[in-house]
Task: structure prediction
Amino acid sequence: MWILAICASLALFLTDSEAPPRMPMPNDYTNSIKTRWLNKPVLGSRLLDDAESLSTWKLANSGQARGELTLTRERAVSGSSSVRLTSPTTGDEPIPTTRYYGAADAVRVVDGEDWSEWNRLSVWIYPDLPGFRVVSLLLILRNEGKEPVPDVYGKMGMNYVILQNQQWNRVVWEIANLPRDKVTGVVFSYRVQGNEPGATDKVLFDIDKLELEKVNADHYLGWNVAPGEISFSHSGYQTGFPKSAIASDLKAKTFELINVESGVPVLTKAVSEVQSKIGRFQVMDFSEVRTPGNYILRAGDRTSRPFRIGEDVWKSSIWKAINFFYTERCGHAIPGVHDICHRDWMLVHGDKRLVVNGGWHDAGDLSQSFVNTSEAAYAMFSLAERLQARNEDPALLARLIEEAKWGLDWILKTTFHDGFRPGFCTMDRWTNGILGDVDDMVCQATNSPAGNFSAAATEALAARVLRPTDPVLAGYSLKQAVEDWGFALAGMEKQPRGAQTE
Result:
């Protein structure tokens, strides 16, 4: 219920001062890690491969992948050619419960080299995937030294990158945190994940100018603040709440809080030191300042970026959270993200079937989690109810209810009315929307007391919030809440004491 807790606390900070943003909100990469990495000075480099030969490359197909690896002179960044990886987007055999068909990998083979003196990879990639709105590729570093990479959990040494379609992308990846004493390969992996009906069924990636680089790498180890930095709340600070920033290597004994508009310090104060179990920290506390405005912190020769003090500093985070859920919608056309999707995704319960698209995709893939969806909708309805009670911010109220109803609709449509409904439905690929062919996906319904309790709570709250504006939907929600509460209680009675409910 963490989403509920966050939204409930954020309700304290809302004002009517901002117009509602249009969704999907445009991405701002100004302060992104991608922008910061691309603008770092390169202290040294070594050309690993200029893509003029396939002698150091190999193709690796897994599962049903049918990738091909060739040299092409159609385009290049360095020299006259690039390495081209192509692959169909689907396999030939149905995989109704499996995430994807396999992977087509272009592997740059490395002969057990020690790359300890290098801490960044740089490569140029040109994807040509007509009709794809979002293009991703997986980069993998392989190390067979004292500590293998990827690790046994399949987490370290794997980096998914988002690419701009039909143009050269320079991709940089800081690897300072990875063991690299015996590197055996750099892998460019396309997971065979289908395609939308309007997109190509064959992907193409051109790869060129793979380099090792040396940069001042980001701080990644330990609790201490990165050298030369001040850690502060980028969203800002609410006027009546504690306000502090921390550092680990300040030489200055005092700090200033400076109003950006006037350039005048409004507070000068001593830097305090705090020793804790996780280390020693230098604390700059400016809680006594309550005047709204834009400020920076300065301690000696070190300055933070601007931040706000105000009553509504968290409001933008609420809009961004709503925008995130909007872009995660399943079964709905999202401009620049995807078209109406997964119309051939079925929920199975004995001989019964339901098309299960709708709700929101999971954050890391295209899956559906019933409890996640119901808790998210509950959080939105909960915040909406607070706004209703205070008669505040009608634009935010309307948008919260609109997005919450999208989740509620999926909760109501995915019950078999006997306690069975989705649990976690795995989905990690695009489908063509046609029932009965090779790319159909199937999820097995379950009877979970936890799921039914969660459904009942969301439906009951929705009934209360929607009663003034949508009494028909409110009535249906309340009816279903009573039904699901009964299924949850019945399921609990059948389980032995102490058993998990999900």
Summary: Residues 1-17 have pLDDT under 50 and may be disordered. The longest strand covers residues 202-214.
